[in-house]
């Protein structure tokens, strides 16, 4: 049980937050305690569900001056969990090294993180925690989803802009529903845990934040859900479909299909007239070979007139 935590303080003098690195430091002990409590619950839930070893392997992304880290170190020790951090700012690496000499802090860009290798070294899938830098939130999340494909990441409990969090958990037929909703709801069970006001950060960001929990479903279930579709192809179609929200799905896909079939208009027309719609280039190719990989979901008769936000 993580009890209330003392107000995190910034080291005097040198550690001024850098906007370019998305540094908004947590400065409220209650919020820190709430985030860590939720992280432990998320991680334990996925351990029980998916991991027979029962061990928690925590990784914090962007520890900064250590607002979460200072409480995570003793908490993880108590839980007998492994714990390491990834941080790009050398000032943070130095500071954390002084405060927690035995903590492993990888001094690197989180986008270069090799989660599958880290998971192999740790002996099983990782649980991620982080008050993420908002300028690369979705790239970080996509990388985690990809890693879950290799059984390297089981859960992620991370803060982000509230509006991004809303898009991740959005239901179909809402204006927030988009690529983030489709992808993350496919890869994970997603939960918006709670809203976080700007006042608990220093400096305060302009918008509200949210703590999001992702419980990745893992490779087996994901393969079932994708039923033969390649993840990258899926993203290509989703990008084509959602990028231009004012276009009909038909027109967005027409462009993509015209690229794939190098301008073969008849072929494009034939595919656009088919129902259910073959979802990706892979599925289209599979169909030609007589295999049936197409979407099984029933589409309304006028599906090509639908717009992504409907
Ligand atoms: N965890 C601290 C807290 O809650 O007070 C800091 C959170 S701050 C929102 C984001 C952290 O991510 C900063 O420490 C920043 O230096 C780090 N960061 C930004 N870009 C990064 C990147 N590309 N790779 C690794 N860390 C990064």
TrEMBL record:
Q: Provide the E.C. number(s) assigned to this enzyme.
A: 2.1.1.-
Sites where the protein binds S-adenosyl-L-methionine: 24, 26, 62, 87, 109, 131
Q: Does the keyword Kinase apply?
A: no
Q: Which GO terms describe its molecular function?
A: RNA binding; rRNA (adenine-N6,N6-)-dimethyltransferase activity
Per UniProt, the enzyme's principal EC class comes to transferase
Keyword Protease on this protein?
no
Keyword terms, alphabetized: Methyltransferase, RNA-binding, rRNA processing, S-adenosyl-L-methionine, Signal, Transferase
Q: Give all residue intervals belonging to the Ribosomal RNA adenine methylase transferase N-terminal domain.
A: 35-218
The record's similarity note reads: Belongs to the class I-like SAM-binding methyltransferase superfamily. rRNA adenine N(6)-methyltransferase family.
What is this protein called in UniProt?
A: rRNA adenine N(6)-methyltransferase
Top-down, what is the taxonomic lineage of the species of origin?
Answer: Eukaryota, Sar, Stramenopiles, Ochrophyta, Bacillariophyta
């Amino acid at each position: 049980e993580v009890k209330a935590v003392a107000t995190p303080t910034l080291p005097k003098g040198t550690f001024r937050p850098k906007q370019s690195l998305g540094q908004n430091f947590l400065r409220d002990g209650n919020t820190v305690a709430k985030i860590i409590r939720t992280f432990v619950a998320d991680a334990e839930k996925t351990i029980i569900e998916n991991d027979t070893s029962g061990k928690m392997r925590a990784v914090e992304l962007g520890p900064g001056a250590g607002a979460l880290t200072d409480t995570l170190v003793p908490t993880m020790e108590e839980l007998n969990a492994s714990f390491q951090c990834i941080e790009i700012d050398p000032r943070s690496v130095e500071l954390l090294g002084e405060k927690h000499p035995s903590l492993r802090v990888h001094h690197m860009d989180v986008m270069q993180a090799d989660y599958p290798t880290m998971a192999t070294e740790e002996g099983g899938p990782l649980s991620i925690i982080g008050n993420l830098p908002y300028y690369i939130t979705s790239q970080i999340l996509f990388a985690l989803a990809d890693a879950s494909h290799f059984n390297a990441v089981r859960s992620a409990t991370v803060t982000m802009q509230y509006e991004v969090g809303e898009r991740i958990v959005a239901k179909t037929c809402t204006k927030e529903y988009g690529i983030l909703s489709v992808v993350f709801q496919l890869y994970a069970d997603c939960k918006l845990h709670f809203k976080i006001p700007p006042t608990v950060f220093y400096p305060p960001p302009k918008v509200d934040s949210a703590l999001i929990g992702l419980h990745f479903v893992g490779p087996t279930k994901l393969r079932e859900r994708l039923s033969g579709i390649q993840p990258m192809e899926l993203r290509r179609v989703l990008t084509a479909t959602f990028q231009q929200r004012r276009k009909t799905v038909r027109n967005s896909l027409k462009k993509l299909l015209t690229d794939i079939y190098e301008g073969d208009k008849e072929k494009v027309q034939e595919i656009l007239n088919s129902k259910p719609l073959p979802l990706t280039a892979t599925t289209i190719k599979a169909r030609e070979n007589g295999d049936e990989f197409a979407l099984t979901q029933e589409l309304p008769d006028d599906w090509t007139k639908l717009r992504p936000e409907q």
